[in-house]
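Re-running Glycosyl hydrolase family 18 to confirm reproducibility after the cluster update. Everything else is unchanged from the original entry.
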Amino acid sequence: MKQSVKPILAGVLFVFIVLLIALLSNIIKKYTPTSEHIKLAKYFNIETEDQVGLVIQDEIIEKKAKLIDGVVYLEYNLVRDNLNERFYWDSNENKLLYALPQDLISVDVGSKDYYVGKKKNTKNYAIIKVEGDTAYIAVDFIKEYTDMDYNFFKEPNHVMIVNEWNEVLETSLKKDSEIRLLGGIKSPIVEDLKKGETVTLLEKGKTWSKVRTKSGFLGYIKNNKLNQAKEVKVNREFKQPEYTNIKKDYTINMVWHQITNADANGTLLEAIAKTKGVNTISPTWFALSDEEGNISSLASQSYVNYAHQLGIEVWALVSNFEVEVDTNKVLSYTSKREKLINQLIAEAIEYNLDGINVDFEELSKETGDAFLQFIRELSIKCRNNDIVLSIDNYVPMSHTAFYNRKEQGIVADYVVIMGYDEHYEGSEEGSVASKSFVETGIINTLKEVPAEKVILGIPFYTRIWKETPKTKEEIAKEDPNTDYVPYNLTSVPAGMETVEKMLKGYNVTPVWDEKLGQYYAQILEKNEGCTYKIWLEAGKSIEEKLKLMKTHKLAGVAEWKLGLEKSEIWDIILKYVN
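Result of re-run:
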């Protein structure tokens, strides 16, 4: 029996030893760091020889740079989105543009030459290349006009761009170590580093920290391999362009004067005589007239002369209201923008205008970049000719963000909030400019534009809303799946005196609505079988808006439009602009 037990014990012992070895092997394997190195082309997802990996600050960018004839190029859209939005690519005329405060830089595709205004300059590389529908700008050219620096590395080709200049945390390695793709010893190695090498600390975790190496790799390293981090100031000598602006040393009180034909210029004398405190007038003289960049003009020298005699500046308005003219087809072509701008400046000089007021409305999102480029280019000519440039803007909403009020506030002298049309023809009924609507517009504009550059536009008009009961036939034709509305709704704009006469005719007294900051009136018209609803603009509601102008320390006020106001309104306005 004893002899038969020995083989069994030996077998059990053998199995135990095998299991122990296997267990120890697994433990060793589990806790032994991998020595596998990631293929760096894969790290940057480089697939072709001309592709260049790209790191901007502390992020690996999905889009690649290009290496063409030994020069690194970046995609135009990438440059706009990440580095410098002032570069503008005209794909219609194959031109790269960059607007400086007093000059426009232009480059033709494939050219080593570029123009600063009319002065020709030359680089030793092609500044812009095009492949298919994609434009690429040489990174060295970008760097000249952008507060950024870069380093180019080989094996594999990659570029590290730094464009944030502030204090960073830097640390050095206690001993030779490796940077891994992710935190963990089983993550592949990105780069081997020597003791004493410096890395930038991006994120510190409990055990592993994210770092950026001097050669442009991002990865993770164990905390116990790093020395104490210290703050280091990172900076670059770069002179930002200085945008000089015209700033009035008084509160602006501008009134728009709608001019629809040459004879209407003659109404100035009578209309302005009823006002008080007006120091700026904006006649609606200019309009886009075709898709080649031409304008129609109703400018009048006698009008300007008379305004100047009264000490009133003239900021002529240019609009894009001609329905048959596609604004995008004008603004998206450099030659057409140039024609438009040259005509505006020529008119301003000929008629001794003090300013230009741009009122381009209902733009599509695709026109946003071209509109902004138009504003930049127009600002150059205005700045060089001492002409005030003001831009009319909607109350900020997400769908009009492409108007880029922040950039407007840099290049233009004044940004005007059109603090009205809260409700409009075709919308549901309601106020044209409730107090909360106006104040929200101010607050959101001030998030992007300094208060000393903001002018508040207010309405001298309201809308008369008319509810007419639907007929049985109309009701029968309605879609049962839509919300039922028992009336047809229409509206017409009306000035202050028109509304006052209407209310007196019906013997209706409006009621003050504290929340809206307006009077409200409702008329039951029995003969017509309809209901009129009016949210009035009157002295008290106008004063509520002027208080907002003062509270937020804005540059001034603008009124739409001359002739729709009651004469006593000017006494109220005068209190806030003196």
